[in-house]
Amino acid sequence: MVAGCGPSRSSDSSGATGDTSHVKLQGSGASFPAPLYGHWFKQFSSETPGVRVDYQAKGSGGGIKDFIEHTVDFAASDAAMNDDEISQVDAGVVLLPLTAGSVVLAYNLPSLEQPLKLSREAYSKIFLGEIARWNDPVIAEMNEGADLPDLPVTVVVRADSSGTTYVFTNHLSAISKGFASGPGTGKSVSWPESDKFIAAPKNDGVTATIMQTPGAIGYVEFGFAAQAKLPMAGLENQSGKVIAPTLENAAAALATVAMPEDMRAWLPDPVGEQAYPIVSYTWLLCYQKYDDENKAQALKDLVRWCLTTGQSSAPEMGYVALPPNVIESVQAKLDSIHSNKVN
């Protein structure tokens, strides 16, 4: 993700301006938005001479750790930083949602000829380790007429500290008292001790494990499952409707929540008949103050580009474009980012 390194003064239709010659922005974090960020950052770098943006997908927890330790210029997380994490950053923190997506339950059941439907009870019990076989009556009840195999259920979860895990467990805790009082919500949780629970790193690792394991089910970001052509379960939402994981249904969920001043909007169990039940924004983590004035300007130019030009490519890569009111809020929030040279 490298652009030419000649000096320039960037300027485009998105309003990006400033002397950003010979600037490298280094980021790390969430794998959830990594395909889209990789595409965006490469394109921005190629269109902005003198600026290079590199990003390492290592999981939201790893990104937040790097950000707190100030070993990166920005980070990314599907779990917005909490107050305790923010308090550890002397340079201040600005959280900027750049896109949104669905967490889906992808599965590997080659003999199943119709899309799998899962009730809230069914998928909660699967991830509590309380459903052992695919022909369990709790699953069969929602899949009338389906030839469910008498096959063990293998549950694939994340091995790393993950914002995707946070989004998924936040939802499960909202709909299941047993999950809330058991594994609970977190970037890492204690899953049931069972040889049928397999851990894999990052979204692509979970996706690959599901593909290689007949009888497997696991949680991944929509785009990873779509690219791998894995089937995804329709899930029962708060209204009792079984909703397929489409971009339209994810957008319907996002439409139900207002963006607060601190940009930390959560949808643990969205309302609305067409709302897909597991949807989240994903955040870019920026410092409020940068020692390097050119880095501060380059980062703001990058975010403006992602909010304007970049949004058009989000749906084709399996992500939800931000609503106009959210884009407006994020653009306004950019004004709080500055260099130490600014009083």
- Tell me the strand percentage band: 15-25%
CATH topology (level 3) name of the largest domain:
D-Maltodextrin-Binding Protein, domain 2
Helical proportion, percent range: 25-40%
Q: How many strands appear in the DSSP assignment? A: 15
Per CATH, the class of the largest domain reads Alpha Beta
Distance between the first and last residues' Cα: 33 Å
Biggest sheet descriptor? 8 strands, mixed
The CATH H-level superfamily of the largest domain is Periplasmic binding protein-like II
Going by helix content, strand content and strand pairing, the class is: alpha/beta
Radius of gyration: 21 Å
Average of per-residue pLDDT values: 93
Q: Which regions have little confidence, pLDDT < 50, spanning 5+ residues?
A: 1-18
Main β-sheet, spatial strand arrangement: 4-3-5-13-6-10-8-9
Shape: elongated
Q: Count the helices. How many?
A: 12
CATH architecture of the largest domain: 3-Layer(aba) Sandwich
Number of domains: 2
